[in-house]
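User: Predict structure, ligand magnesium ion.
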Amino acid sequence: MVKQLCILGSTGSIGTQTLDVVRAYPDRYSVYAICANRSVDKLVEQAKEFQPEVVCIADESLYEPLRAALADLPIKVWAGSESIAEVVTMPSIDVVVAAMVGYAGLRPTIEAIKAGKTIALANKETLVVAGEIICELALQHHTPILPVDSEHSAIFQSLVGEDRSEIEKILLTASGGPFRTFSLEQMQTVTAADALKHPNWEMGAKITIDSASMMNKGFEVIEAKWLFGVPVEKIQVLVHPQSIVHSAVQFTDGAIKAQLGAPDMKLPIQYALSFPERLASDFPRADLFALKNLTFEEPDLHRFPNLGLAYEAMRRGGNIPCVLNAANEVVNLAFREGRCGFLQMSDIISQTMDKAAYIQKPTYEDYVQTDQEARKIAEDLLIIH
Ligand code: MG
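Assistant: Predicted complex:
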């Protein structure tokens, strides 16, 4: 049976690599719908190649050029965030690949879960913001959530055939990013261009900055907690600069299982689509003979306070992880635009977490409200700084 895919964020790094997998296995996967935020030209190119039923652009002002470019083809063209929330529920779709960036991924992911679609989740912010709601809904609608994030795919692969009650610890690896060996003084003056030179992984701009600041790893701790039902105290981050061990699980008998491989997102993407099968691929192999050594260090929370802030957000619970995410989206963009220093990002996030109103058991509407409030607080703090 051919699986029909809906790809949210099809023009981004994960989206384009998902299409590579489809290209390699046209007898197994077919593209039913693709959605992008603003990249019209790329979306048109993808639509012409994959001939989906529906193409959707989040930015409504780009509807007209998109429609005009696809006017000769029998493709429905939609625009706006409401349309994206609707497209994911279409009956023919089997799998929704949630690869949008940031908070924008939350609403369509919720709608897709409610419609019973299998979720291949790359948008970690969805679980950071509203992990509890997402997990409850997934349980209620019997919707599998399969991780696309390389670390979570590694944990997921290590857990196949295991009983989750026998997990002692999750060992979540981090590359450490481009500033791993920098002093605090050096980090004061780094720019977005410096941060965008990631040593091992090729990713979109937002996540590359999150990787450099280690907020990405903080988010991944939260993501792992929700995906695998493990409290954050049992999730240990290890800085592993070679990015070969993609993460591991330690069991109650002391055994450790890990998944290793070359740092290439195509494998975790393909595994999320093919699970429980493995499909042959020509992706790069990790040559164990060529590896001189595999090293593991404890993360330095003094130089990378974002990781500590993520643990703190989970300890405080309620809507605080949502505040963490919103403030981070604001400072991440500000840093990329040169409006905020690298170290300043953590200060503003921390202050926003203290200033935002606390809600212990937030509803979806509370999260929407919290997201707006936290963005406003962080924006105001940026002006003062
Ligand atoms: Mg990752």
